[in-house]
Every structure is written in C-alpha cells, then in structure tokens.
Please model this.
Amino acid sequence: MKFSWRNILLWSLPILVVSFFLWQGLFAPIANENNTNVANSRMTYGRFLEYIEMGWVKKVDLYENGHTAIIEAIGPELGNRIQKIRVELPVSAPELISKLKKNQIDLDAHPAKNNTAIWNLIGNLFFPLLLIISLALLFRRSNSATGGPGQAMSFGKSKALFQIEAKTGIVFDDVAGIDEAKEEFEEIVTFLKKPEYFTAVGAKIPRGILLIGPPGTGKTLLAKAIAGEANVPFFSISGSEFVEMFVGVGASRVRDLFKKAKENAPCIIFIDEIDAVGRQRGTGVGGGNDEREQTLNQLLTEMDGFEGNTGIIVVAATNRADILDSALLRPGRFDRQVNVDIPDFKGRLDILNVHAKNKKIDPNVSLSIIARRTPGFSGADLANLLNEAAILTARGRKNQITLQEVDKAIDRIIAGMEGTALIDSKSKRLIAYHEVGHAIIGTLLEDHENVQKVTLIPRGQARGLTWFTPSEDQSLISRSQIKARIMGALGGRATEQIVFGDSEITTGASNDLQQVTSMARQMVTRFGMSDIGPFSLENEDTNPFLGRGMGNLNEYSDEIAVKIDTQIKIIVEECHQKTLKIIKNNRVIIDKLVDVLIEKETIDGQEFRNIIKQYTEVPQKI
Model:
C-alpha cells in the first residue's frame, strides 16, 4: 500500500469514531470512579449499622454527596486490624448521622472533585474537534488534487500516465520488422530534439500521427520507443479512459490532458485504442452516445481548434481505422497515417533476432527457416512462438531450444494443444485417407501451396491435420489459385467417397465445405470470376455498429441472386469432378501414403513429395 497523508486520514477516521464511543461508554465512567476506589473491600449498609452498634467503626468519610462512605473499622472479624471498607449508602438515611454522633465516630464529608468535567470536556469536545479537522484536511487534499470543490472523486481529471523523461527501457533498436513506420517516428524524434533543421526551411511539426494495423504488429511498442528516444514529457492514456457514464466527464478529461500538455510542451501524447472514443458520430442503433460524442468533439477542438497546440504531438493507435470519424483523420489533426502491417520475411527474421537475444537456442536452429515457416505471423505471434518453445524446452528438462520445440510451438499456436494419438484402427485409417486426400491434391496442383506436413496427431478440435506453407504475398490471388484451394479443400471428402463409397462419407469435411462455399461465393460476388460478369455484387465492409452482416442489404435483384447460386454450384461441381478424377488416377499412391502415415503418424512435406515422385510427376496444372 502506498502511504500518504490521504491514506493515513482515511484509516484514522473510523478509528477516531470508534475511540470516541469507547471513551464515552467505558473509559469516562471508569475515570469518575477512580476517586472512590480506595477501599480494599465492600460492606452492606445493614452490616455497617451493626459495626456502629458494636463500636468497631472509628472513622467515616463521605463521598459523592453522601452516597458512598469509606469507613475505618477494627474488630475481631477484621483480625483486630484497622481496615478501610466501602459502603454504598441509601438515598435517605437521617438516622445515620445521629448514630455516628452518638457513638462519637469521627465524621468527615468530602466534596466531589471537578475531574469529571475535565474528562467530559475531553470526551465531548476533543474527539469531535479532531474528527472535524481530519475531515477538513481530507477534503482539502481531495480538492487540491481535483482542481476545486465538488470534484472530490476526481471524475473530471485526466488519468494519463505522465513522465518527464519516459524510461520505458525500449528504444528504436528494440523495434524490428516495421522499418517504414520506424523511419517516420525517427523523423519526429529528430524534430523534437533539433527543430531548427526543419523550421529553417519552413516545415511545421505534425499535429498527430495515427498508427493503423492489425493487433500484435507493434503499435504500442513503437510508441514506447518514441518515449524512450525523444527525452521529452510523455503522456500515455487509453481511449476508453475518456469515457464515463456521466455526461461531460470525458470532455473534461480531454481538456485537462491538453492543459497539462501545454504546460509541458514540447511533449508527446499517446492515445492507445483511440477507436473507443473516436468512432463515427451519429451512427448506431437508437442514436449516438452523448458522452462519447462530446468527448470526441472536445478532442477535435483541442487538436485543431481556434486555439493552437504548438509543440504537442498526438500519437494514436488503432486496429479499426474504418470506424473512425472522418473529422479526426483530416490533415491538421492526424497529418500522418502510418500503416503497421504484418511483417514480411525480412521483418520476421529481424523480430526473431530481437526476441532470441535472451534465449538459449541450439546453434543448429536457423531463425531464417522459422521465419519462412511463419508467414502471416505478427510480432506478438513470433514473440509468443519463442516463448512457447522455451516453455516446452524447460518442461523437457533441456538446456537449449531445438527445432523440435519450435515445431511443436508453431503447431500449438496455430491448431491448439496436442491431443492423445488415435488407437482405433478403423477411425485412424479413415482420417489418414482424408488427410492424404488434402495433401495429394495440394502437391499435384501447381497453383496450390506446398505441403508442409501431414499428421494424425489430434490438435484442438481437429483429429488430423494437413499443413500447407502459404505463399509470401497473399494480397493478389489468381483465379487458378482460388480454384486450386477449393480442390485442395475438397480432397479429403473426395478421397472418402472414392475409397469408402458414398454411404461411408463422414462429417469430417464440414469445415472444408464451409471454406469451399465461401471461396466460390467470393469468386462470383466480389472478384467477378464467373459468367455473370465483372461485377461486385456484395460489399466487403460491414457496419461496425451493427452485428456482423446485419447491415449488408443485397443490392441486386432476385434474378441475379439465382444466377449467383447457379454459378457457385457450377464452380464447386467443376472442382469436385476434377478432384475425384485426380484421386482415382492416384489411388495406388494414396494407399501407399496412408500406410506410411499410419505407421509414422507424421510425414513432412519433403518426404511426402519424394514418395509421390516414385509414381508420377509433380506438379501439374488444373
């Protein structure tokens, strides 16, 4: 726990309240009794009268206005020694004084001391006064932290993490795989450190830089590197921290954030996940959110409004740039939009070199091979890959990470945890034929990706898997490549049909058929690869404020819809017949491959191709 005056006061208040009531209920009465607690024993009033008659009482001292007596008595019952005894006297006892005078007993009356007034003053004044002072100090510190009274809960203040010199431990040398984006920010850092280089030719510092890219590509890491390199004040906040349930709080936080930034200019403001506050205004079911829209309006005003923000650079990150408000993206607010994409082979290799520095890797393991086997992996995926490999190495009590652990880590990240190997020979053989069907179609077709390996070891929900090595460039795909993928997905179902017959076809191809239908529909409706013509009949973009696909209304007639269904059927049926023909012509090779796969449970791509080359030439055109 962080100790401060505020925390001490918060803990002291309940203790003071409890102490006050304990004082009033317990300690104050005890203090009042201390004056009369001088006797060692007690005696009843009746017994006291008998002692007087026997002449044993020598002296009587009256206390508390005659309600209590301390007597000094001597007698056989007391061991013939003078003892002090306390006696509680009745309210009215007029005969007592006459008896004491008659027996010539020394009588003395003691007035009540004024100690109770002091204790009552302490109990009734001191503790409430201390309580009021503590509350006053608490609210004073709360108001000073929030900017004024009425804001004790600090709703309207920015929650940004502020660092005069951000020591994140990350510099540009630690960022790899996104060289283009890094160059942009190296220029910004130079502008902050040596602005005269740019101002000499009339250049102005950019107002804002928006990082756009898929999750895990290093957007936040790049912002940390900027903070580590720039040596200027750095404000870091998430977009969701601007939005509260109370209207006006988010706008107040934006004002407070930029007020602090102006006081520390030049500086950098980093807003992570800006889409939480920067969504398009005036959209959504039932209208927009007033609080979020007011917050966005305030952000727009602060970035490029009537009053300029000289020396403040706003860096924001998002993976949903399509839903951002157009006013936020215009020049003058976010002047630059930097795409941080999935790294290519060189980028993946650089990222692996960065993350491999603190890991013990076998010298025989080539990072370039790992980089080639992981197209489509982001920087976060590659970091997780080496970490999973290190965990598997430690679990196996090994000293270095080998290629075996790397292979297992890749399989685990893509397909899930490894399951128990199949025992049932019938199911195992059926799955083996299914997977070999996928692999042989992928190997025999020139336009299909190469087979990486075929395995019968279950992972996740799959009881067998066929891995393909995707090509490096996935941005442009030809018609023949899409058809090859459709045929490869149909290979498992076609092999079951040829080998076991129509009556023994299983449900194992359900996911394959979904992929086939999706690819064929995209060929017809989006890519113009059918007899309907070069038309885009369905919009790829979905309304982000509705459910996925809910906002997609068909913009074509029922006649075109029938033609779309017909073309999809034609494409899939054509690919299916070609796949059946390839399976029939290579039945001998398939049987051989299945026997090898059942025996080994896993065949890598090169061994698979070597077996096929013994019987036929590969590859061939569709």
User: Anything to note?
Assistant: Residues 30-37, 144-153, 544-552 have pLDDT under 50 and may be disordered. The two ends are 69 Å apart (CA to CA).
